Amino acid sequence: MKNLLLIFSSFVFITSCSVDPEIKPIIGEDDVKEIVPPGWPAPVYTYSANTLTADGFTLGRTLFYDPILSADNTISCGSCHQQFAAFAHSGHDVSHGINGLLGNRNAPVLQNLNWNPTFMHDGGILNIEVMPLAPITNPVEMNETMTNVVAKLSSSGKYKQLFTKAFGSDLVNSQRIFRAIAQFMGTMYSYNSKYDLVKSGKESFTAQEQSGYNLFVQKCASCHTEPLFTDYQYRNNGLSINVVYNDSGRAHITGAAADRYKFKTPSLRNIEKSEPYMHDGRFTSLNQCLEHYNSGIVASPTLETQLVGGIPLTPQNKADLIAFLKTLTDTKYLTDSRFSDNNF
Asked: Residue 116: exposed, middle, or buried by beta-carbon count in 10 A (0-12, 13-18, 19+)?
């Protein structure tokens, strides 16, 4: 009997130790650096007043993926910003918030945010450090208050440790929350696409990609300016008015009739992976987007002058442009484990 118990005990010991515990990746100081790729303009936001550290980044990353920021603890930033989709919301024309509520805009991609002078489709947020406040407090997104967020984080032993590591004490306040998230989101740099390798002389475009690039320079680059592929301006690109949302765009912020139906020019980086497209997610393919510019422009008083009459594109033009746009896909960024859910 003793031998049987000994064998059983040994079996339990061996089997309990046979499965290794999950090893979470550790972010080191060398993994978190402020970067300005060669040939890029100076960023709008720097970390001069928000010292960038591995611990600050880790705290921001944890907050980004934690549904504790929402009123019912079900929705995180990462719920609507998925890495494989360039941190847009794959397959959703508009995003779902708590209780299945719907907003009226497509979740924008998150990349190279330190160059953004403003945020959101209408530019209603002016600084990356306060950008999370909008979704956290929006009644159809997270529907929470910062008072409650601070209280929940302050009562968490895990977060007390994370805040102490990041800031030297376990004090939780809005500024520390937003600065940590800015350290995470601001270092989401995407600059390793085939386009970038071509520009650095390490690769070459195919004949079709080169044709698409030439067309892009002729027909698209005045708004989608290289190397960030946006000029951060607000434009009416000739979409018909969505009668469900009747979204006035930039005019929602300025109140100016001249800004009606204008939305910020989105970056085209990683556009192959970030469908659906436009501020209301009405298009599900790049071909649909290009056909809009070819034949779907709707005239209105605030229509971008360059788009009057549309942009004529043959089927071959569209195929070539799409081939080029796919060179803007940064697989390294889309799979970088530093930006994935750390499952705290």
From this structure: buried
Report pTM.
0.90
Contacts of 33 (CB under 8 A, 6+ apart): 52, 187
State the amino acid at position 64 in one-letter form: F
Coil, strand or helix at 261: coil
Cβ atoms within 10 Å of 198's Cβ, excluding its own: 16
Q: For residue 264, what are the β-bridge partners?
A: 234
Looking up tokens 């929006």 gives 138
Would you tell me how many other CB atoms lie within 10 Å of the CB of residue 100? 8
- In the three-class reduction of DSSP (H, G, I as helix; E, B as strand; rest coil), residue 42 is classed as coil
pLDDT digits (tens, 9 = 90+) for 55-77: 999 999 999 999 999 999 999 99
Helix (H) or strand (E) holding 235: strand 234-235
Whole-angstrom Cα distance, residue 235 to residue 304? 6
Our CA angle for 252, 118, 34, nearest 5°, is 160
Could you tell me the domains of the chain? 29-190 (1.10.760.10), 194-328 (1.10.760.10)
The string of pLDDT tens digits covering residues 213-259 is 999 999 999 999 999 999 999 999 999 999 999 999 999 999 999 99
Could you say which DSSP state residue 176 is in?
Answer: H
Interacting residues of 289 by C-beta distance below 8 A, sequence separation 6+: 277, 278, 283
Q: What is the dihedral of CA 210, 214, 215, 218, to 10 degrees?
A: 170
- Residue 234 DSSP code: E
Q: pLDDT confidence of 342, banded at 50, 70, 90?
A: confident
Please give the helix or strand (H or E) that residue 263 lies within, else none: strand 263-264
| Contact present, 249 and 259 (Cβ < 8 Å) | yes
Task: Locate all alpha helices (DSSP H) within the chain, ordered by sequence.
Answer: 2-17, 54-64, 77-80, 133-137, 146-154, 157-167, 174-186, 194-199, 207-219, 251-254, 286-291, 315-325, 331-335
Find, among 155, 160, 183, the residue nearest to 170 by Cα. 160
- Tens digits of residue pLDDT in 7-26: 444 444 444 444 444 445 57
